[in-house]
Amino acid sequence: MKRESMKDLIEWKKRSGRKPLIIRGVRQSGKTWLMKEFGKAHFKSFAYINFDNNSRMQKLFAGDYDIKRIISGLELESGVKITPEHTLVILDEIQECSAAVSSLKYFNENKPEYMIVAAGSLLGIALSGTSFPVGKVEFLDLFPMNYFEFVRAAGQEKLLEPAEKGDFELTNAFSDKYIDLLRNYYFTGGMPEAIAEFVKTGSYENTRRIQQNILSAYEQDFSKHIPAGIVTRLRMLWNSIPAQLAKENHKFIYGLIRHGARAKEYEAALTWLCDYGISCKVNRISKPGMPLKAYEAGSIFKLYISDVGLLGTLCGLDAKTLLEGSKVFTEFKGALSEQYVFQELRNLKDLQISYWAAEKGTAEVDFVVQSEGVVVPVEVKAEENLKSKSLKSYRDLYKPSIAVRASMSGFKRENGLVNIPLYLISLLQDIIKKRKSK
């Protein structure tokens, strides 16, 4: 299995002045596997330390921040001799020991030659209110595997070559192969364990069982790590997401959680859910100015979850429904396609994501992104019907230099509008760059 984030880790290793690196990501997104694989492939050795229920490490870091003493303790725990520049030190589930997090400051200031990579599934929650080494660490966000990573895991890497070379005539000719893989990706989603099981056995039943177990683990985390007074509201909010996305207008409405619900009641629950990393807000913009953040209305937003496969699981959509013809793309009012496009866009670097809706609600463009100094509207069409009144309204009003429609049709350009097949939407930034350079 290959992860694109490995390139980021290699660049971090080569960079002069590097700082300890913290990998953030939702539970079971593959952080531990990635760190160990990095250690195996690019170092002479790696020392792996897991802080979960580890009283020895709690005691080690409860003392002072003498790096020599800490390194000796890490060597005893891992059974590996730690040599600067040649040994990768992996600190897993580091959120379980706040003193270990604080120690990263002293590694950076006093012993920067040691290469430290840390990770935790609940960093956004567990570290709130604790002393954090601001400016002394670097971050890497790891999301569920994207469609291209799924294709590679499925042994179809050759199919990606024309796409990555920009040979869209060839990708159009083989669209049926891309679509078949995309249909399966909608079911498996990007959680590495689910993909590994599907690639190994081809069993939709086994894959769904893994996804259900992941959702159960999330539910258990709610009770374990979130204040009791918030848990009930958080669960209600979480369980309302399918209904929110099933609406024609995907704007988040608190009244769908329960009748009469108000934002103030659920603000804390929403914050916890987003800090956990399994949900993400996309705010509405009043107009497509730069930077987009300056034009966002924080009180008006759409809410997505971390993974399209988990969304299908949460909704109880079975394999037969999803895999018959093009149902997977149109079922659930196209919400699965919009969720899929969101997570593909979120995987791209230096891309700001918002959405646009007219003041009176007469038009809505699914996403508006900022990249390469350009603001680009992105409309998601889950079928072959390419008519879009909302995108037309946006283009008439703001005259963007480029507009994108993500659909089931092949790649084509027409009068400033670029149709990108859903299975190639991760190439959006490359397409913007090429368009901008012309």
Describe the structure.
- This protein is α/β, with parallel strands linked by helices and 438 residues long.
- The chain folds into two domains: 5-141, P-loop containing nucleotide triphosphate hydrolases (Rossmann fold, 3-Layer(aba) Sandwich); 147-437, no CATH class.
- 47% of the residues lie in helices and 18% in strands.
- It is built from 20 helices and 13 strands.
- The chain has an eight-stranded mixed beta sheet with strand order 7-6-8-9-10-11-13-12, with helices on both faces. Strands 2-3-4-1-5 form a five-stranded parallel beta sheet, sandwiched between helices.
- Helix 3 (55-62) runs antiparallel to helix 4 (67-78).
- The two termini are 37 Å apart.
Question: Short description, anyone?
Answer:
With 438 residues, this protein is α/β, with parallel strands linked by helices. The chain has helices at 5-14, 31-42, 55-62, 67-78, 98-110, 123-126, 147-153, 161-164, 168-173, 175-188, 192-201, 204-225, 228-246, 263-276, 308-315, 319-323, 327-330, 335-346, 389-398, 428-437, and strands at residues 21-24, 45-50, 87-92, 115-120, 138-141, 279-285, 296-305, 352-357, 364-371, 374-380, 403-407, 412-414, 417-421. Strand 8 (352-357) and strand 9 (364-371) form a beta hairpin.
